[in-house]
Amino acid sequence: MTVTFPTLGMGTAPIGNLYRVVEDGEAQATLDAAWDAGIRYYDTAPHYGFGLAERRLGAMLAERDPAGAAVVSTKVGRLLVPTDAQGERHGFVDADPFEPLFDYGYDAVLRSFEGSCARLGRDRIDLLLAHDIGRATHGDDHGRHLRDFLDGGYRAMRDLHDTGAIGAIGIGVNEVAICDELLDHVDLDMILLAGRYTLLDRSAVRLLARCADLGVRIIIGGPYNSGILARDLSGPLHFDYATPSDAILCKAQRLAQACTQFDASLPAAALQFPLRHPAVVSVIPGLVGPDQVADAMTRLSARLPDPLWPALDASLKDSSMLQDDARLILLHPDDNVLICVRSIEAGDILPASGGTIPAREGIAIGHKVARTPLHAGDKVIKYGAPIGSMTADVATGDWVHMHNMKSDYISSHTRTTLEQGA
Questions:
Q1: pLDDT score recorded for residue 331
Q2: Considering the entire predicted model, what is its pTM?
Q3: What local confidence, expressed as pLDDT, does residue 343 receive?
């Protein structure tokens, strides 16, 4: 049975003591206010306070939702190991006495799921997400963690789904490239994507179009981009957990000016913007305090004029302080492919060995572009090592993706193979 996700959900990282101590009373008041306001979707994770957020959410649900009507998502990918360490750890302050250990293997996913169910007081989870998989989090360890997930963790999630223990399978990440990479190889029901489809950051536009075509539902986290869109632009500001650059601040100011012209609220526009895309089913700001719950409800219900949206789009296009125009990066001097880090449109001029070439088709972020002509049977070299073989000839500047490449190290995990083994 397909789970219906409410338009507005609550992210629980803040009640896991993210960046500051949140006393039990304040956390309970936040959750009670959310329930009383009609919020019925709650996203959490073992990582949020190392079990603290799940425990607090579970206590509220036990009292307010004994029938299990609320929709709950949690995550796997980290195991909680006891520790004596105190103070701030991984951004969480005075959280529960555990240390998170990355593990995307089969047994680890099952253990993580069991621990989450115990803390949440539930024997079934509506949506289980592989948490923070991807190169942005793991760097040089990305390949190892990806193999662990494809060899074991994903299969564990499929097994849980087949037994009815979870309703849907997905990933919870804040980078676009890993979404495309996994969609090439496995079936996902949903993606929780934080910070990459907001008023300020539209880098997931092409991914969302792909998900709409595939029927993959999207949940957007971080609609305020760490707070810069959550209030007026005075005082200390954060974008993606850091001080915003001058370029980002300029873009935010232009968005704010566009809202002022229509007597509209910038935070309301930020909260409503992701929901305008047909692939997006829910938006989940992190909330702490009854006042933030009330603000979210007011912003979601605010009536914004239709002409505001094209004005907001135009304010970004007119900005003279855009990101650097680099679209492709070379990961290793021996590689015969480049990696797309900004979406490419057909006809865009791309750098290539010995000069430039126009792109023959649109290319998604995270995918590979031929650096030189490649022929059927040639090895595809990335990070200086072979990762697959060409199944057809491609010219310089062509998209090297699953349709013309056989993956040597994860070919056993394609959709066809997984379906045959189900």
A1: 72
A2: 0.78
A3: 74
Catalytic option among 75, 251, 368, 382:
75
Catalytic residue status for 104: no
pLDDT recorded at residue 404: 81
Given 41, 43, 224, 251, the catalytic residue: 43
Determine which one of 32, 36, 41, 48 is catalytic: 48
pLDDT value, residue 241: 79
In SS3 terms, the chain reads as: CCCCCCCECEECCHHHCECCCCCHHHHHHHHHHHHHCCCCEEECCCCCCCCHHHHHHHHHHHHHCCCCCCEEEEEECEEEEECCCCCEECCEECCCCEEEEECCCHHHHHHHHHHHHHHHCCCCEEEEEEECCCHHHHHHHHHHHHHHHHHHHHHHHHHHHHCCCEEEEEEEECCCHHHHHHHCCCCCCEEEEECCCCCCCCCCHHHHHHHHHHCCEEEEECCCHHHCCCCCCCCCCCECCECCCHHHHHHHHHHHHHHHHCCCCHHHHHHHHHHHCCCEEEEECECCCHHHHHHHHHHHHCCCCCCHHHHHHHHHHCCCCCCCCCCEECCCCCCCEEEECCCECCCCEEEECCEEEECCCCECCCCEEECCCECCCCEEEECCEEEEEECCCECCCCEECCCCEEECCCHHHCHHHHHHHC
Active site (annotated) includes residue 48: yes
Is 379 known to be catalytic? no
Which residue numbers in the chain have pLDDT < 70?
A: 1, 318-326, 349-357, 407-422
